[in-house]
Design a protein that fits this description.
It is built from 6 helices and 5 strands; from the N terminus they run E-E-H-E-H-E-H-E-H-H-H. The protein is an alpha/beta fold. The protein has a single domain, classed as Ribonuclease H-like superfamily/Ribonuclease H (Nucleotidyltransferase, domain 5), CATH 3.30.420. Strand 4, helix 3 and strand 5 form a beta-alpha-beta unit. Helix 4 packs across helix 5. The protein starts with 5 loop residues before the first strand and ends with a helix. InterPro entries: RNaseH-like_sf (IPR012337), RNaseH_sf (IPR036397), TREX1/2 (IPR040393). One of its GO terms (molecular function) is 3'-5'-DNA exonuclease activity. Its cofactor is Mg(2+). Keywords: Exonuclease, Hydrolase, Magnesium, Metal-binding, Nuclease.
Length: 157
Amino acid sequence: MPPINTFVFFDFGTLRNQDLDTCDSVTDLCLQAIPRQQYLEPTNTNAPRNGKIYLKFPTHRIRIEDFNVINNFINKQEKPVCLFAHNGNRFDFAIMKRHFENINVSLADDVLVADSMYAFYDILEDRRQGEAVREIYFKGILHQLMHIHFMMSTGEW
């Protein structure tokens, strides 16, 4: 497999529901595309900036028009593309799949997905510490870090 050329970090905002398997009310979605080159050369100001999008869902559902925006954004990135979501395997990817199935659409087969939670487990090496990271996430710290990254990537920091 060739190296990933674009990392797309994403996060759904939802109306909180204790049962992750039935959480179908989405409020918003943020996608941030980061080219591989930006990670390899973080001080290179000439590294391509692939952008970000933020969508609100007033009906709490993803419509075909919303899918088209998401799909076009992903398709304009340099391939291979990998979508990253923190706790994605248990939350974001399931929500995305359900909403896309409801409107009979799907992303291209060559789009990869990864759950960043497992990176924390590997870094911390101790499952209990990994669970602590999960608690921190739900308190919003990762959202703040993503916002800081957005600000830094656009030069607004």
